[in-house]
Design brief:
The chain contains 12 helices and 11 strands. With 328 residues, it is of the alpha/beta class. The chain has 2 domains: 161 residues, D-Maltodextrin-Binding Protein, domain 2; 123 residues, D-Maltodextrin-Binding Protein, domain 2. The strands form 2 sheets. A 6-stranded mixed beta sheet has the order 2-1-3-10-4-11, sandwiched between helices. A 5-stranded mixed beta sheet has the order 7-6-8-5-9, sandwiched between helices. The longest helix is centred in the C-terminal third of the chain and has 21 residues. The protein is globular and about 70 Å long. The termini are far apart. It holds the Pfam family TctC. InterPro entries: BUG, Bug_dom1. Keywords: Signal.
């Protein structure tokens, strides 16, 4: 009888070992992340947006056990990078960086090779702050003088920006509508063209993210007329906001930089990344690194991002329709 009990125990032990053996590698495989994570970016190296992401990645290294690798794929207004992301395996090892403005409005202005609904916001971590600016010696460098000049000579006050249907274009149109003035939009390929045009007196004003003209504002060669949004900027305490002047809902066009994932990514892996990147976005080292860029470091939850995109569509789609820029 003892022998039978011994044999039965040995058999059970063997079966238990056979059952347990496959679990070991599966358990190791389930640890996430177990290898590097790629971040696809539609901005070129050296841009303020890309530099802010690098600062976030540096901070996130404290909270994730594997490397984060930035892959720059500029082109087609971020569409190249987002197309690749939408087709990537939703395993958590390929994510992306874009703006809420891209997913809310840009995707409506061109034919996309992916479905924007296949991407989900992970979180937002920084925000552009746009300003209306002019030459430092212009007689309309104060908002009241700008408004008086625009009303005195309707249509004479022009403004530059990057492309049609862009944030600068739409912000200027909201300003003109709510202030009751006429402004002529002059589209350029980028701020590297229209900032010199303002300084050279070819265009009276322009709209740009404040990070793009920080040195000129500091040396006085350019002056900010108006901050788009509802909060004054610490570096421009004397410049009024659009909200103060009765220009409503402009902050939705101050795009936020955000991380996105393929929609079918497992929820537990989404949580790992969200929690790590939230800590990074709130890390003092990240905030210090972002400060010189002129962008505002701020955490936005996935729900915050969704609400912003919905609001941007509510305000932006009628403007795009008016400009005949809607494709989708």
């Amino acid at each position: 009888m003892r022998l039978d009990l011994f044999r039965r125990a040995a058999t059970l032990a063997a079966v238990g070992l056979l059952v347990a053996l496959p679990l070991a590698p599966a358990s190791a495989q389930d640890r996430y992340p177990s290898k590097e994570i790629r971040i696809l970016v539609g901005f070129p190296p050296g841009s303020a947006a890309e530099g802010t992401l690098r600062a976030l990645v540096n901070a996130a290294g404290k909270y994730l056990p594997q490397p984060l690798v930035i892959i720059n794929k500029p082109g087609a207004a971020q569409a190249l990078a987002m197309t690749e992301l939408a087709g990537a395996e939703p395993d958590g090892y390929t994510i992306g960086m874009t703006t809420d403005g891209f997913l809310a409005l840009t995707v409506l202005q061109q034919k996309m090779r992916f479905n924007p609904e296949d991407l989900s916001p992970l979180l937002g971590y920084s925000q552009f702050k746009h300003v209306l600016f002019t030459r430092g010696d212009a007689p309309w460098r104060k908002y009241e003088d700008f408004l008086a000049q625009a009303k005195k000579e309707p249509g004479s006050m022009d403004y530059g920006g990057a492309g049609s249907g862009s944030a600068p274009d739409l912000l200027g149109k909201v300003l003109a509508r709510d202030a009751g003035i006429q402004m002529t939009y002059v589209p350029f390929k980028g701020s590297n063209e229209y900032i010199p045009s303002v300084m050279g007196k070819h265009v009276k004003t322009a709209v740009v993210a404040v990070s793009g003209i920080a040195p000129q504002l500091k040396d006085g060669s350019l002056a900010a007329i108006l901050v788009f949004g509802d909060e004054r900027l610490p570096e421009l305490p004397g410049v009024p906001t659009s909200e103060e002047k009765g220009i409503r809902n402009t902050d939705v066009f101050n795009s936020i930089l955000m991380l996105v994932t393929p929609k079918k990514m497992p929820a537990d892996r989404v949580k790992v990344l969200h929690d790590a990147f939230r800590k990074a976005a709130e890390d003092p080292d990240f905030r210090r690194a972002v400060e010189p860029t002129g962008l505002a470091a701020k955490y936005f939850s996935p729900q915050d991002v969704e609400r912003r995109m919905q609001r941007a569509r509510e305000i932006g789609v009628p403007l795009l329709r008016e400009l005949n820029l809607l494709v989708n």
